[in-house]
Design goal:
alpha/beta, six-stranded mixed beta sheet, 10 strands, about 35% helix, globular, binds adenosine-5'-diphosphate, binds magnesium ion, P-loop_NTPase, nucleotide-binding, ATP binding, transport
Length: about 260
C-alpha cells in the first residue's frame, strides 16, 4: 500500500526454502520457497485442501516438516521439531489469529489479552492491563473488557483475538482465514482492523478468501495448488493477469 514501505534488502522475517511436509503418505507441501521481508503483507490464496493452513502453521512451528530450511526472524527451525528453544522464541515473536477465535472462555476479554504478557513476558499486572486496554481500544472494543467471550459477537471475539496476539508485540502476524467463521455483517470490522495493522507497517501473512481485501492490502499474492506455489506476484498481476491456467480457473470460480 502506498503509505507503507517494505525494505526488500532487509533480512527476511520468514525464509523458507524447499520445504516439504507430509502427513503420513500425503505429500502436503512440495518444495515450498517463501520469503517475507519486514513490513510486507503476503496473502495466500488457493482451494480448500491445497495446504494453506499447513504452510502457515509451519511458520510458527505448529507443524513439523520433513525437509527443507526454515528461518523465522533469524531463528532456525529444524525439520523434525528439534531446537525447542528457537521454537519457544518464535512462538513469542509470531502472533497468530485463527478461523476459530480460540479465546479462553473462562477469562474476561481483558484477561485474555493480559495472560501471555504476564506469564511469558513477566509483565506486571498494571502494565499488562494498560497494554490490553490500549489494544482493545485500538480494535474498537474498549467497552467490552469486563465481558466474557461468549457474551460477544463473532466479530468482536475475533478482534479480541487480534488484540491478544498484538499484546505480545509480535514481529510477524499470521492469519488463517480470520473471517471465514463470521457472519457476513461482521467481516468488515475484522478486515478493517487488519487493514489498519497493515497500514501501520506490521509484517503479515494472511490466508483468506476475501479477494477484494486481498487485492487492496497485499504487497504480494501467492496462489497455492496441491501444496505447490504455482504463481505469485503483485495483486494486480495475479488477479488481473494470471499466467497459470490453474490460477485462472481458481479465480474464475471465486471472483
Ligand atoms: P487448506 O488450509 O488449504 O484447506 P490444509 O493445509 O488444511 O489445506 O490441508 C492440506 C492437506 O493436508 C489436506 O489434504 C488435508 O486433509 C491434509 N491435512 C491437514 N491437516 C492434517 C492432519 N493433521 N493430518 C492428516 N492430514 C492433514
Ligand atoms: Mg485451511
Amino acid at each position: 500500500m502506498s503509505d507503507r514501505t517494505t525494505d526488500s534488502t532487509a533480512t527476511p522475517i520468514v525464509k523458507m526454502e524447499k520445504l516439504n511436509k507430509n502427513f503420513g503418505s500425503l505429500h502436503v507441501l512440495k518444495d515450498v520457497d517463501l520469503s517475507v521481508t519486514p513490513g510486507e503483507v503476503v496473502v495466500i490464496i488457493g482451494a480448500s485442501g491445497s495446504g494453506k493452513s499447513t504452510l502457515i502453521r509451519c511458520i510458527n512451528g505448529l507443524e513439523e516438516f520433513q525437509s527443507g530450511a526454515l528461518e523465522v526472524d533469524g531463528r532456525r527451525l529444524e525439520p523434525d521439531g528439534r531446537a525447542s528453544k528457537a521454537l519457544q522464541q518464535i512462538r513469542t515473536e509470531v502472533g497468530m489469529v485463527f478461523q476459530q477465535f480460540n479465546l479462553f472462555p473462562h477469562l474476561t476479554v481483558r484477561d485474555n489479552v493480559t495472560l501471555a504478557p504476564r506469564k511469558v513476558r513477566n509483565a506486571s499486572t498494571a502494565e499488562a492491563r494498560e497494554t490490553a486496554d490500549r489494544l482493545l481500544d485500538r480494535v474498537g472494543i474498549a467497552n467490552q473488557a469486563e465481558k466474557y467471550p461468549s457474551q460477544l459477537s463473532g466479530g468482536q471475539q475475533q478482534r479480541v483475538a487480534l488484540a491478544r496476539a498484538l499484546a505480545m508485540e509480535p514481529r510477524l502476524m499470521l492469519f488463517d482465514e480470520p473471517t471465514s467463521a463470521l457472519d457476513p455483517e461482521m467481516i468488515g470490522e475484522v478486515l478493517d482492523a487488519m487493514r489498519e495493522l497493515a497500514r501501520e507497517g506490521m509484517t503479515m501473512v494472511i490466508v483468506t478468501h476475501e479477494m477484494t481485501f486481498a487485492r487492496e492490502v497485499a504487497d504480494r499474492v501467492i496462489y497455492i495448488h496441491q501444496g505447490e506455489i504455482v504463481e505469485e506476484g503483485a495483486p494486480e498481476q495475479v488477479f488481473d493477469n494470471p499466467q497459470h491456467e490453474r490460477t485462472q480457473s481458481f479465480l474464475s470460480r471465486v471472483l
